[in-house]
Design goal:
2 domains, 6-stranded parallel sheet, 11 strands
């Protein structure tokens, strides 16, 4: 960033008409302009009515993606030239807007935006030597989801210039990295792993260069959905680089003994394991069991577990049929070849234990056939 550039001061607050009015008038009185961003076009009328009543001193322009190109350009030009004090818009201003005099940003319903989107919007102000301010408002009476709270807390804490990489890492912690080679957008960095992706990519490139068909049989990764937070929290391991290194190490572990040693090392270095880390270690253990049992996907909910086998294949189908029959009415095979195990798992801890117990059984049944 430029030497004289100042970081944007960021505040997260329940929506308060007095605070919004003060922020907009403060910017107007110091000769600057403000951006007021809403998540949906249908929010514009409500917010415009609010501004007309609460901040009648301010001239408000409106911009959104459904306006004609010429009309939109006229509004943006007028705002740039100072004919409007406030530009009320959707996220159409997220990129391509560079107005040095725009130094106050107010986000309406900030809980409805993604972390990267909020960061991008915040970058629309503070593009001069003047200190800029970003006010992220949330409903005063509505409880935010855990992810929304984490997103806003992270963005408020990243108030230094050049914080993009830190933000991306936090985003991985909160949202999960997803399946980098497919269309699934669930999971976490510790379940997929950048190292695995890089290794697979290198093997694929090498195979293409040599003219042979690429097959990465040993490196497929199961999808595990338990509904439990799994991560290494920042308050537990504060150093970002170290946290990523631990994730990298964890992605290579597939043995119970190694996992126990890893957990003991964490306790020795950082103290007692937080719940999220304990659950992360459980997920890694379950992942290893999935590989042994050829389970491509496992979903655990309050009422049971659904298991899908890779390519609908299981090493010991006779053993599986016998196992399902032994369980009785609490297990069944669906028409799509997925196996449903019915049980009560009210808590995340119960789902983790039940899933690990089931996958342990399936892995033993599969390996019994292989040994034979």
């Amino acid at each position: 960033p430029p030497v004289d550039r100042l970081a944007v001061r960021t505040f997260v607050t329940p929506f308060d008409p007095l605070i919004v009015r003060e922020a907009l008038l403060r910017e107007r009185y110091r000769g600057g302009r403000s951006l007021y961003v809403v998540p949906r076009i249908e929010d514009i009328a409500e917010v415009k009515d609010f501004l007309d009543k609460q901040v009648p001193e301010a001239k408000v322009g409106i911009a959104h993606g459904q306006m004609a190109a010429g009309q939109l350009e006229d509004v943006m030009t007028a705002f740039y030239e100072g004919q409007y004090d406030v530009l009320l818009s959707t996220t159409i201003v997220e990129s391509g807007l560079d107005i040095p005099t725009a130094n106050t940003l107010i986000i309406h319903r900030a809980d409805m935006f993604g972390l990267a989107q909020l960061y991008q919007l915040r970058g629309r102000v503070g593009r001069s030597k003047v200190r800029a301010y970003a006010l992220f408002t949330v409903p005063a009476t509505r409880k935010l989801t855990d992810q929304a709270q984490k997103r806003l807390k992270v963005l408020q804490s990243l108030d230094t210039l050049g914080a993009g990489f830190q933000l991306a890492s936090h985003d991985l912690d909160i949202r999960g990295a997803g399946n980098l080679l497919g269309d699934e957008q669930s999971g976490h960095i510790k379940e997929v792993g950048y190292e695995l992706y890089q290794q697979m990519l290198e093997e694929a490139v090498a195979a293409l260069k040599s003219g042979i068909e690429f097959e990465s049989e040993a490196q497929w990764s199961p999808t595990i959905q338990i509904g439990a937070p799994v991560m290494i929290p920042e308050h537990y391991v504060t150093d970002l680089t170290l946290r990523l290194t631990l994730y990298k190490r964890l992605s290579t572990l597939d043995d119970d003994g190694d996992l126990q040693s890893f957990g003991a090392e964490l306790v020795d270095r950082f103290g007692p394991l937080p719940e999220e880390v304990q659950q992360l270690l459980e997920i890694v253990a379950i992942k290893a069991l999935c590989k042994r049992a050829n389970v491509e996907k496992v979903e655990a909910g309050p009422k049971g577990i659904i298991v899908a086998f890779r390519d609908n294949e299981f090493a010991n189908p006779e053993g599986l049929v016998s196992y399902v029959a032994k369980i009785g009415t609490l297990a069944k095979v669906r028409p799509d070849m997925r196996v449903v195990f019915i049980d009560d798992f009210e808590t995340a801890e119960a789902r983790l234990k039940g899933t690990r117990r089931l996958l342990t059984d399936l892995a033993r049944i599969a390996e019994r056939k292989k040994a034979a």
